[in-house]
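README, section 4: Worked example with a bound small molecule

Sections 1 through 3 covered apo chains. Here we extend the same pipeline to holo records, where the ligand is supplied as SMILES alongside the sequence. The molecule in this example is flavin-adenine dinucleotide. Nothing else about the input changes; the structure line simply encodes the ligand pose together with the chain.
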Amino acid sequence: MYDVIVIGGGPAGLSAALVFGRQRRRVLLVDGGSVRNEPADAMHMYLSRDGFPPARLLALGRDEIAAYPSVEIRPGVVVAARGASEDFTVELADGAVEKARRLVLATGQVDEPYADVPGLAERFGRSVFHCPFCHGWETSGQTLAVVTTVPQEAMLALYVADRFSDDVVLCTHGPREIPAEIAAKLTARGVEVRSAPITAVTGEAGALRLEFADGGTLDREAIYHRAPTRQHSGLAAQLGCEILDDGTVRVNELQETTVPGVAAAGDTAKLPAVPDAATLVSLGAADGVRAALWMEGDLFRADLAAAP
Ligand SMILES: Cc1cc2nc3c(=O)[nH]c(=O)nc-3n(C[C@H](O)[C@H](O)[C@H](O)COP(=O)(O)OP(=O)(O)OC[C@H]3O[C@@H](n4cnc5c(N)ncnc54)[C@H](O)[C@@H]3O)c2cc1C
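The generated complex, written as structure tokens:
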């Protein structure tokens, strides 16, 4: 019986494991090994590591955790989880079955770039960017396209036109009803709107080409595309945790889910009052620390209560 099984070894899960390791808790961290920003060469906005390769950050984290012998990091995928506080059972894809008193879910999200735009997914994270906070600075002064079928997300085109570039084209991949107020602002900002379906994205960073069904082409240095996302795992739902409308796991300020003994941290989790999941490496790491900190107190109180 482990004290805690942490599921997911991105910034959130590793941070939780580090806290537990330092408190000499017996922890198993199971990680499927495909973090959300894997395709990106560099991550930004992590103080002291701005521009650092994401994989190196995780490797450094795992090395640090290795100093704490009560933590085991195991590659693998958890396929099922059940039970209640003090007695959870998880099953791994390789058939292993493990038990723990508490669970931390840090399984993240998966981005799904439009499958009907050939070339978009292959470039996601390298020359097709989802977030102007993560990559905006690097695209300063570049010719940009914003690809979205969601009329409200025309706001992203306005945002990058305001912050980073005078040359932004909004590509809606088919005719869309853009709200009049946003359409007026696009015109005022000089953001062209192309509604023809995109048939291909070719080229590399700095020299991308969008091809359209009407025969037109558009050469751009970078593309923004806020891809639809889904949860990386369905374990929270399996355990009976409340899931919010956007698919994230409901947590409180202590990162506790609605199921006692189960915490959630990082991209997978959200406070209901927050309008949009703020999904960043630093915030995931902070969530992981917070989840472990409060869960450690909970374990200690349970230990005291059980002591003679
Ligand atoms: C292209 C791109 C670029 C980004 N750039 C930045 C940036 O510059 N700066 C920034 O702050 N943020 C950036 N982000 C956001 C950042 O990647 C996430 O906020 C961060 O990775 C969240 O950490 P996490 O630990 O919650 O999840 P993740 O890092 O996604 O880690 C989740 C882990 O859980 C594992 N897992 C999932 N299900 C299971 C299971 N059932 N069993 C076992 N393991 C499982 C996964 O394999 C993965 O290893 C970027 C995102 C994208 C898509």
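What to look for in the output: The chain is about 25% helix and 25% strand. The chain has two domains: 2-111+228-306, 121-224.

Section 5 describes how to batch many such records.
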